[in-house]
Every structure is written in structure tokens, then in C-alpha cells.
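**Reference record**
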Amino acid sequence: MACSSGNRNRGERLKPVQSATRRRLWKCRFDRVAVEDEQMTTKTIQRHTEPNLIKLAANDSAIISSPSYPSNYQNNQDSQWVIQTAENFRILLSFKAFSTESCCDHLSVGDGMDSANYSTRIFRSSGSSLPPDTLSAGNAMWLRFTSDGGCVFNSCLNSGTCQPVGRSGFNCECLDGFEGTRCETELINLAANQSINITSPSYPNYYPNNLDIQWVIQTAEDFRILLSFKAFSTESCCDHLSVGDGMDSANYFKRIFMSSGNSLRPDTLSAGNAMWLRFTSDEGGTRSGFSLSARSYGSVELINLAANQSINITSPSYPSNYQNNLDIEWVIQTAEDFSIILSFYAFNTRYNDNVGVGNGLASTDSSTTVFRKSGNVLPPDTLSTGNAMWLTFTTDGYENNKGFSLSARSIGAIGCILNSCLNRGTCQPVGRSGFNCECLDGFAGTRCEAANQSINITSPSYPSNYPDILDIQWVIQTAEDQRIILSFHVFNTESCCGHLIAGDGIDWTNSSTMIILLPGRSFPSDTPSTGNVMWLRFISFGDLFGCVLNSCLNSGTCQPVRRSGFNCECLDGFAGTRCEAGKDYH
């Protein structure tokens, strides 16, 4: 392979250099661009365990060869080179010879200085085909050559040291804080109330392919571990983060969840004082991965509610008085598509002894708090926004009271909780958050909020005859957005002198509001109001009927004239048929 430092543009097609090849060997030469051979400076680099840094001056060149070249290289090779040149220059690799075991021995080449970052890899080659000339994107390039054997196929992770065993076996000597066949498991001991950040490799850059790494987190015996996710993005088909209780990631019965894709996981609390995480990626695409915090969490009682299950929670010693200096927390969880409702039966605490309620798993996040209360006023029923809720109770060192008693219930349909029916209507849930109210007779509306009431009105003494002289009024009123309709069952009055009058509003003296005037035996049709108030007036005055229909205004006195006529005697200063006009005296 020939390689040089120069300013040739990336992507320029270069003609491969033809050379005889030998089994299990390759050779790389760094050639200067546009410089004569006799001015060339070269050096030969042999196998090194750690990456070799090769600094090329502008237009300088170097030769790199596989270990022992031109003799065969050894098994269990893992040799790396990092080549760097001046800022405005590039590096050109030109292969002179190439022959490796095609199944198992590979040369990888990439941009930059980090051979562990597979996203920068340009190619990975094995066999006897001469790779094409290759130009770097910037002023740095890495090469890595591996040959098979136990320590190559199964290199140790987390800076563990690999010792080959036989042809393909290996043994990893792990640094403190790591364990596992390949040192893939990081052991994390959290002190009480301590927290630590955990990220996927290379985060926020893309993680590598073919990962299988684990973390085991442990804290004090009476504490739990709370995982809070800040970011999550993995290849949804193939790259997974699994989380479980205990220390054994192989125990799938203890697995809490396995997740992939872009949905942020909810906060997750361990059942005990140990928790494991395992992250695996395949050989396909990658993403930015995840970032989370793990926190040691003390004095927490974890309550797992099955779907539609309920449980009672009380302050210590209830109904006797609770103790001083308490700091207690409950975390309640239920199925993912369910919610939790807290219903308080009793509540009596001292001024500085507080009950706190919030959504989620972390009471330390003040933004999740629903309320924090003390005293003796019963808190309202409280519905969670998700499938988890926290409850805290803290007391000071002074006097105490009985405390509280409540129920926590898992509910799948919340429509009837959020939208209870009025006027003794019966609520039926529809789906997760919908509802339907079955209203009692006389009520209607989405929540039975509208009176749909009816009432019977009859003439006096009905079904017997009404008296000769009558003047009776009714005012009917309903809800603001409702109307009134009159439906007649029987109608039989004296045609000349018995009249039922109906109108809109409450002022029966205002003839402009009159809707109907009904005498005789004609059966009236249904009569609706235009608003939510209606008046009725029933009169039977015989010869006085004219004065009933046409009352005098401005305190005038009405005198009937025959059947339906009338005459108004007006006070001084007024005139007109009904005394409606004022006189002008000069």
C-alpha cells in the first residue's frame, strides 16, 4: 500500500498500483505527491500493542507494513496506527501488496484519530484483492490490523487485558470496577442518595455496532435505585436497552423493560437495592443512544397496583397519633394504560406536618407536585396524569395528630372521574377518557345539567267547572339555554268570557309579549316560548271582560261597557282611551 501526505482532493479517482501479493502479508507505502524519489523520507513501522502516532510533515511519506512483513504475520494481532499531517494537507494511502486470510484477518482504515469510532471507517478489507488508493477527508487517518485468535475475536472491553488461550481461546484481566468474560459489565456502587450519569458509548455521537455492554448498580440495603432518562434514540429494529432488578442480566424474569426507538422511557424504580442495564447493538445502523441518571433513593415504599386494584394507605399508627420526625415516601405504579386516583377518607395533621402528592416517581422534582397540605381540611380526589404517583409525609419534632387515611385505586377509564354526571345522572365510561350520562326523567345534556322537567297546570277546580270570576297568573322559568313548550290535553272555556292568555317573559301586563289568546273549545296546538321564561293568565270575568283585556293606565278606573267594552275614567293630567296620554295645562 502506498500512502502520502498531499493536497489532492478527496474523491479523486486513483489508479491502483499493481504488485505481486503474498499470502498473509500486506505492505503500505506513504509517497509524497509531486516530489522526486530521492527527496523522500521514509520509515518502517512494525507491530505495536498501542496505536502508533505517525506525524508526517507536509509532502512527507512513510511505509507501513504488517508485522514481520514480508514473512507471515502472527495470530492474535491487533496493531493500530494513527497518521497525522499538516492542517491543510490530506493523507493518501497507496497499497503495494495485500494478502490476508479472507475469513478472519482484516485491515480497517478510517478518518480521524479514533479507531474505535466505526462511523469514521472508510473500508474494512481482507483477502488478496489490492485495495484502491484512499484519500483522507482531513489531516488525520487511522489504520487497524487484526488477525484471528481468541484475543482478536473477543477483545476485552473497558481497557481489560486479553491473554490468548490456545488457538482461539482468551482470558480477560479486568480493571477494578469491571467484570464479565470480556470485562463488559461495569460495577457501580452508589452511596445513599448519590447519583451518577450513564450514557451509551460515544454519546452524544453515534454508538458503535456490535455492542453488548452491561452495568450493575448497587446501593445501600434500605435504598432503591431510580433511573431518570434524559435522552433516548436507538435503531428501533435491532439495538436495545434492557433494565431489570437484581444483579443478573441473564435472569429475564427480573427484566423490567426492553426498549428501542426514540420514545423517552418513564422514570423507573428498582424493587430492591440492585439493578442491571444491558445495551446491545447489531452490525447495522446506529443512533446517538441514551443518557440517564441513576440515583440512590431512600425510605421509599414501592406499591405496584394491578389493573383496577385498590389499596389503603395510612399515616403510621393511624387512627392513633403519628410519630415525630417522620420522612416517609410511597411510590405507586400501575399498568401503563391506567391511571391512579387517590381518595382521602380522613385528614388531620399539625401545621408543619405535610402530606405531598405528585405525578411520576420522583418527589424531588417540584414540577410534578400536585399539592402539599397540612391541617384538617379533606383534600379532593386526585387523579394522576400517568401511571405513577408519589406520596410523601413529613413531620417535625413537636406535637402530632391522627394523620390520614386514603385509598389508591388503579383505573383504566377516567371519563367518569373527570366528568361526573349532575342531577343524579349515571355515568358510563366510553373508552379511556370518554363518558356518557344516563339522565333521570326531567333532565338532559352532556352531564344532565339541563332541566328537562315537565309540570301539569290546570284551571281551578278542574275537572269541575271553574268559578265565574277569575284572574290567575303563572310564571314558568327554566335553565338559560332551555325553552318552554305548552302542550294542551283538554281545553273547554266559555267562548265569550273565559280566556287563557300566554306570553314570553315575566310581565303579563305587557300585551306586546302575548303569544296566544285562547277562548272556547278549539284545541290549541303546542306553543313554544322564545326564551326561558313564559307567563300564563286565565280570566273569567263575565261582563267585566272588557276591563280585563284593556286595563286602564296611570291609575285610571275601568268601567265595563256591555260584554267586552270598557271606559276609562282618568286622573287629572291624563287622557286617552286607556289614560295613556298626559294633558298639557296652560
User: Anything to note?
Assistant: The longest strand covers residues 223-233.
